[in-house]
Amino acid sequence: MENDRASQLTGRDLARYQRQIVLPQLGINGQRRLMSSRVLVVGAGALGSAAAAYLAAAGVGTLGLVDGDTVELSNLHRQILHDEAHIGWSKTQSAAHRLNVINSDIRIQEHDEFLSSANALDLFANYDLIVNGSDNFPARYLVNDAAVFLKKPVVDAAILRFEGQLAVFRPGLGCYRCLFPTPPSPGTVPDCAEAGIFGAVAGVLGSMQAVEALKVLLNLEESPSSAFLIYEALASRWHRMPFHRDPDCLVCGDTPRITALIDYQQFCGLGSDRTQATPAAASDAFSVTAEEAMRMMEDPHLTILDIRDEAEFLKGHLPRARQCSMEELDAPTFSRDMPVLVVCAAGVRSAYATQYLRSRGYEAWSLAGGMRTWGGAVSAVAIQERTRR
Amino acid sequence: MITVHLPPDLAREFGAAPAVTLEAAATCTDVLISLDRRHPGIVSWILEPDGRFREHLSVFVSGRRLAPRSQASLALARDAEIWILRAISGG
Ligand SMILES: [Zn+2]
After folding, report:
1. Same domain, yes or no, for A240 and A321?
2. ipTM score of the complex?
3. pLDDT tens digits, residue range B16-60?
4. What total of structural domains would you count in chain B?
5. In A, which residues are within 8 Å of B9 by CB distance?
6. pLDDT for A186 beyond 90
7. Is B87 on the interface with A (CB under 8 A)?
8. From the list B9, B58, B89, which residue is nearest A137 (CB)?
9. Is the pLDDT assigned to residue A277 strictly greater than 60?
10. Which CATH number goes with the domain that contains B49?
């Protein structure tokens, strides 16, 4: 293949990789194969960090990273490629920097952009295998469909709280849509920002993705059948669920009905109405309903803090709200004499921030259910007002 | 006895254990009815009104994956294990 270094291992290669070359399943030929392989890691987050670190260390010749995000302090408890010195860097740059320190003999390709229907096929075409560490449903369905169309294997994993899921999707043997034909309704499955993630769980799943990816590249799989693996960290248990290609699957079935990339935001119900979300159980003494918040907002002195990240904020926020990171709460620039309304996506993060501000003497209130319930409540009030007239 | 493994967030929402053990029954629907008796309302999150599993769920019964949107009325072995899985998206 294109990496000529792979054809002849140097003494340095033999020294670096000797502990895996001695494995009879690998040998010199296996190492050569890894060095001529190209793997794309989608998402340089928690899963991507762990997976990419092992793939780089093992000597995968070309490692691509695609992510349009930047490093934040709240990433560091689980995204082990990034560190304090790289806060504010693009994630691909930060990850590439660290991977290069781990192994300077491999090639790292930075794709500092979010995966989209516009770039996915071109990106995937340059790689042999995709490791999926994306953090949202639209990206997961996009990765799946693009990989099915280009017949690329995907090592997929997802994490939430103390739970992990992993599957290897090989061309012709079933895909993500065979398991989950449709995504859950928006808001019914929380994301890590709202529900939390036990950092080391990402390490377990990301490392497992590296194991499975290396097995695919080296043809080391013992059974060609597909399986969905579930990790329950609290019970210290793995479960293995065999599955098969679904002949009725919309993308990999016998008569596929989706044959080109689609609008995945819309497919996942995120393009339009998000109000059917179930509010998170933020049973907090200092939370207010949307109606109460609207009354509070009549006070022009009210400070409204939106503690979601910038990308979430820019998608829509309350009038007069200012985006404020959790770190900024340590050195607040707003007055202690005025009430504060704290807002996030579902009311979980804002409940914590409210407790913290209260401990520092602020009259803080959290919007229960967050922005997800706000939209529905506001339109309900608007309808009431209209019918009253 | 039959074990039903529930999605963790659904179990928490209804105060159920992540794995619920129930009396053996002839069909999966019967088991879900007794689950709903124990945790009222929970089955409306699992089944459509027409008795099919909701499409976003992946259901495994005794190690066999049901086709998407299968009817829940299938017959069960006395010691069946039912896994009701939903996708998660964190990365
Ligand atoms: Zn499929």
Report:
1. no
2. 0.93
3. 999 999 999 999 999 999 999 999 999 988 999 899 999 999 999
4. 1
5. 189-190, 195
6. no
7. yes
8. B89
9. no
10. 3.10.20.30
